[in-house]
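Example (one chain per record):
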Amino acid sequence: MASHVRRPPVRLTARGRGPARRPVALTGTPGTGKSTVAARLGPRVRWQEVGALVGGGGRRGPVVVDLARLGRRPLPAGLDLVVGHLAHLLPVRDAIVLRCRPDELGRRLASARRGSAADRRANVEAEATDVVLFEALRDGRRVWEIDTTGRTPDAVARAVARRLRRGGAARYGSVDWLADRRVTEHLLDGPP
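Predicted structure:
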């Protein structure tokens, strides 16, 4: 499945100077590694968390985001990436969706003690059923998937940086968690 919307690739100028017209969303289900990866992108890529855009920058825990209001405001000039599990819902041109096999995602969320058991289960189910991917595709953006399963944050950051430099045709659809027997068994076994 490919996007039929043609858009020019994102161009980063030398040393990352010169703003992109609209930033790219680095998005995915909570626990896929968005913030960790963004922090490893280096000084050439300017990024900001969605929470910081609404004034919840340094807070731990949930931040209330009024997407309609935020979507009407211009994003800060000079950003290359907007990072967060809601970033693809903002006025961005393209989206990079980080993916993680749901059983590994459940382990990541549990070991980090992120959210309640019910929240973790909901995130695992959302990842298994491609919720963020389908939301990102809804508005005709170019979308690229990057599977973070078993990969180091540095390896994923290199893949994200390459995608930002190269742009190119949309690349998604290679991740199909429900076709993976381990995933379906994990989902049927109960809460992570």
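Caption: Residues 14-189 form a domain with the Rossmann fold fold (CATH 3.40.50.300).
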